[in-house]
Amino acid sequence: MKKIKVGIISFAHGHGHSYANALREIENVKLVGIADDNMERGQKAADKYQASYYDTYEKLLQQDIDAVIITSENAKHCEHVVAAAKAKKHILCEKPLSTTVEDAWKMIDVCQKNKVILQTAFPVRFNTSIANAKNAIDSGKIGRVLSIKGTNRGWNPGGWLIDKKLSGGGAVIDHTVHLLDIMRWYLGAEVKEVYAESGQLFSDQVHPIDDAGIVTLEFTNGVFATIDCSWSRSKSYPKGGDVTLEIVGTDGVLNIITNKQSIHVYSDEIGVVESFWGDNMNLGLVQDFIENIRGNKEPSISGYDGLKAVEVALAAYRSSETHKLVQL
Predict the structure, then answer these.
(1) Whole-prediction pTM value?
(2) Measuring CA to CA, how many Å separate 235 from each of 37, 146, 202, 241, 271?
């Protein structure tokens, strides 16, 4: 079996470490190099994962690698994807795919022209409960889906993620995209109308950013859905996101709480201890990406999937600003 050689462009996003750890767990895969314009951050990551450090992504793309994982700032995704595609490298790109719909189309087009995979990093699809619910819906166990209520609440991540020039927005673009992808996957339908309210309720006003949002959707098949995408959790909350779903059908209801894959011990001597035993969604995502490369297959979660999620998030911002329904 051929060894797949991978590089990572930027450790700006924290998921870079999760993906690097995942690469080390997959047989016949090697993390060859790390490119980061932040020398201290990049060199530290390279030392940790025993890879070569490059101070520009151009130097990394000149190496003998098959693919790159892009975990740079959101606004830089387009530049990095275009360069990687032209260098004939397969690509796994962190979500949101881009900060504009125009950039997303550009990324999709350049990857198609250069015949490389563009896979969007939506790891939630690889949670067992999420996958089991997909099977239950597809087999008709809850009848026809009528509505979905979802949450993806977490903490304010700070750093560049609250700089709109680099992130494209706050909680709405950061957390809506995960659940929107799951809903599209479950329903096989597109969003036709968006209404949203967003604002800053949980963090200081020194760095103005939307940290609260409720997004209401109507799909082309008549299903209504809501997403609470707020950064409403404190720093002491154990997870960055609390993906939950309530799916109401004509013959039943599915409830999913992805964070329940853990054991909590409450002790007077040592306090509260959480022991996680569940899915490594990021490992599942990276394994799937590598399998698609090996099998010369279409990406399981395409650039188009990433584009549709960005489209809805941006429509939510327009709706929040105008207090009007936005049609897609």
Answers:
(1) 0.94
(2) 28, 35, 12, 12, 18
